[in-house]
Amino acid sequence: MLDVKGLTCGYGKVSVVHDIDFSVRPGEWVSIVGNNGAGKTTLLKSILGLIPVTSGSIAFEGKDITKAAPNKRIRLGMAFVPQGQQSFGQMTVEENLHVVADQYGSEAQARYDEAVETFPVLKEFASRRAGLLSGGQRQQLSIARALITRPKLMILDEPTEGIQPNIVAEIQRSIRSMAEDRGIGVILVEQKVQFAVERADRYYVLAAGRFIGAGEGGPDAVAEAKAALHV
């Protein structure tokens, strides 16, 4: 589905990410773990077309999108959940979801129902203003809004930041489900190694803009990934 080859990118003349190779298949969860400043968000921005690629290539479903605009990548089936639990705080949960769902006309209600099925708490709090939700609930709302687009590839940036442990576990289960049950490819970047690696299919360790480790995910892989990061 996604093929990244020899990717180098950064800001102006400064390269932040260097010679990155990886791929994501349909229904596969791939995690990229690294400490602050490793280049994780910069890598995501290049995949989304938010910053230019200095060298290398990005292909999505066999199409070269290296120079494609971000809106074209979204139309092709990418969805992005940025860091920070994005939502319209003065609007209700239901209104936040319908902002996206209503773009799909006759499919709007079905897409809305799919989203709240993934996170039942959103159905329970449908009439509550998003600004009154906990950080974890707002993160669930952000992911649900992205799911309404029925993406082929879901990209998540630090989804556990500032979220209570019980919600972190629920989000982890939901990500695993969207990959296995819906066939959505997942790219997740995180500092929390256990969350990122123990249920992923594969992982990469990023440091100073380069991959310094990689392997199959699973509970037994957590210690190896932590060792590569020296955490």
From TrEMBL:
- Protein name per the record: Urea ABC transporter ATP-binding subunit UrtE
Q: Which InterPro entries match?
A: AAA+_ATPase, ABC_transporter-like_ATP-bd, ABC_transptr_urea_ATP-bd_UrtE, BCAA_Transport_ATP-bd_LivF, P-loop_NTPase
**Residues in domain ABC transporter?**
2-231
Under PANTHER family, the record lists: HIGH-AFFINITY BRANCHED-CHAIN AMINO ACID TRANSPORT ATP-BINDING PROTEIN, HIGH-AFFINITY BRANCHED-CHAIN AMINO ACID TRANSPORT ATP-BINDING PROTEIN LIVF
| Gene Ontology molecular function: any one | ATP binding
Instruction: Name one matching Pfam family.
Output: ABC_tran
Q: Which UniProt keywords apply?
A: Amino-acid transport, ATP-binding, Nucleotide-binding, Transport
Coiled-coil regions in this chain?
A: none
Q: Which NCBIfam families match?
A: urea_trans_UrtE
**Gene name in the database record:** urtE
Q: Name one GO biological process term.
A: L-amino acid transport
Sequence similarity: Belongs to the ABC transporter superfamily.
Q: Which organism was this protein described from?
A: Bifidobacterium vespertilionis
